[in-house]
Write a structure and sequence with these properties.
Helices cover about 40% and strands about 15% of the residues. With about 450 residues, the chain is of the alpha/beta class. It has one domain: TIM Barrel (Alpha-Beta Barrel). The structure holds 6-O-phosphono-beta-D-galactopyranose (BGP). It holds the Pfam family Glyco_hydro_1. Its EC number is 3.2.1.86.
Length: about 450
């Protein structure tokens, strides 16, 4: 038996923008995704936008009943900033405030541990339009005010707060690359956005502890180790730099309170350091997180760049490292992501050895599969591949815990099939199937299995 520690949390993660949907008179303001979909629907898989998602705003009570049916002892979702402050700051949308209160109360009534994330890629559009979004330092202060409101309003119900989910993703996809709105391709803007996001996270940690020193707040990072193609010094260097950009850019300031010197040097040499004040660096140093959330789907494998960069082209990560496709890798063909369970063990070791073995929770891990209907038998999707995927990762997590990892829970992505940014409804991740036509919810085999896993606090070898 792989037995997990007493009080280990079992549950799932989701986000407001991917589940709630828009409704007439709900008073929600646009966020970046609502806006972008309106002006460029062609950028979304089969033109599927964020209007309906999984209609949680309408079906939340029914959905929360399913939490217990699938064995949840913990649940993570996010508040949409634009639902509470439609313009990002100023006037409050009371319907939105009440909605989250009802949802959180119900979760607590069920005895479920509640983790609430305050930002999941969803900046209120008004702040982008009027103030240049995260390129403007003011956005960090607007964010602090919004989070302070949440700590005061819901602090009695929330067990663990989260400042940001995967903050490197909007930096990389929205500013270095042409993948998420505002798709700028501008390294100087990207660095500014990253710094202002970190500043915002530290400001939220500060506000949270000001509201109540006993509140617990963390950040969720996609912490993949970077594995070099070979031990050639240039491949090793590429991996080191990849990790600086992808992981340490937020991990170090959030947990250790300062930026890695090598990262600062790389930026300084290219004249990319953002405007900063010593007061802000002190604020970051003094407001580190209480715990970490770790999302893990795939490892990062890199090699030294093959070509010297065109000096006139915009600075992209490829100037430092390029993706390495390892022959013989195991892959989830639907998402195109490598599956490498041992990465989880390596993350745990890294946190233990280099980050003071800070407490952490695995906040996302899961398998997105296209066309799951073909696995239906007797009315239930037989997603044994998902059960195997989770078990394989849990074996590595178990081994890590045996070796001293301070991991307190496992949250699968995700609870009910939901809308997935650029991929719409293509890949399904849920323990519960969502019929897009009827909005009917049906447990998959993995949903039943997850309950057994949670009740046994482990599984048979
Ligand atoms: C994570 C995000 C989630 C979720 C997940 C699956 O990076 O935090 O919001 O979407 O990835 O990825 P995708 O939806 O792109 O398949």
């Amino acid at each position: 038996m792989y037995q997990f520690p007493k009080d280990f949390l079992w549950g799932s993660s989701t986000s407001g923008p991917q589940t709630e949907g828009r409704f007439a008179q709900d008073g929600k303001g646009d966020n970046l995704w609502d806006y972008w979909y309106r002006i460029e629907p062609n950028r979304f898989y089969q033109g599927q936008g964020p209007e309906k998602t999984s209609t949680f705003y309408e079906h939340w009570e029914e959905d929360l009943d399913l939490l217990l049916e699938t064995g949840h002892t913990a649940f993570r979702t996010s508040i949409q900033w634009s639902r509470i402050f439609p313009e990002g700051r100023g006037e409050i949308n009371q319907a939105g405030v009440d909605f989250y209160r009802r949802v959180f109360e119900k979760i607590k009534e069920k005895g479920i541990h509640l983790l609430v994330n305050l930002y999941h890629f969803d900046l209120p559009m008004a702040l982008q339009e009027q103030g240049d979004g995260w390129e403007n330092k003011e956005t960090a202060y607007a964010y602090q005010e919004y989070t302070r409101f949440c700590f005061k309003t819901y602090g009695d119900l929330v067990d663990q707060w989260i400042t940001f989910n995967e903050p490197i993703v909007p930096v990389e996809f929205g500013y270095f690359y042409d993948a998420h709105f505002p798709h700028k391709v501008d390294a100087a803007a990207a660095v500014k956005v990253a710094y202002h996001t970190q500043l915002a996270s530290s400001l939220a940690v500060k506000a949270c502890h000001e509201v109540d020193p006993n509140f617990r707040i963390g950040i969720v990072l996609n912490l993949t180790p970077a594995y070099p193609r070979s031990q050639h010094p240039e491949d090793v260097k590429a991996a080191r730099i990849a990790e600086l950009f992808q992981a340490k850019s937020f991990l170090d300031p959030s947990v250790l309170g300062h930026y890695p010197e090598e990262l600062v040097e790389i930026l300084r040499e290219r004249d990319l350091l953002p405007d900063y004040d010593p007061f802000e660096l002190r604020l970051i140093e003094e407001n580190t997180v209480d715990y970490l959330g770790v999302n893990y789907y795939q490892p990062l494998r890199v090699a030294a760049p093959r070509y010297a960069p065109n000096p006139a082209s915009p600075l992209l990560f490829e100037q430092f490292y390029e993706p390495y496709v390892m022959p013989g890798r195991k892959i989830n063909p639907h998402r195109g992501w490598e599956i490498y369970e041992q990465g989880l063990y390596d993350i745990a070791q890294n946190i233990k050895e280099n980050y003071g073995n800070i407490e952490w929770i695995l906040t996302e891990n899961g398998m997105g599969v296209e066309g799951e209907e073909k696995f239906r038998k007797d009315g239930v999707i037989q997603d044994d591949y998902r059960i195997d995927f989770v078990k394989d990762h849990l074996r590595e997590l178990h081994r890590a815990i045996q070796d001293g990892a301070n991991c307190k829970g496992y949250l699968i992505w995700t609870f009910i099939d939901c809308w997935s940014w650029l991929n719409g409804y293509k890949n399904r991740y849920g323990l519960v199937e969502l019929d897009l036509e009827s909005q009917k919810r049906t447990l998959k085999k993995s949903g039943h299995w997850f309950k057994e896993l949670s009740q046994a606090n482990g599984f048979e070898k």
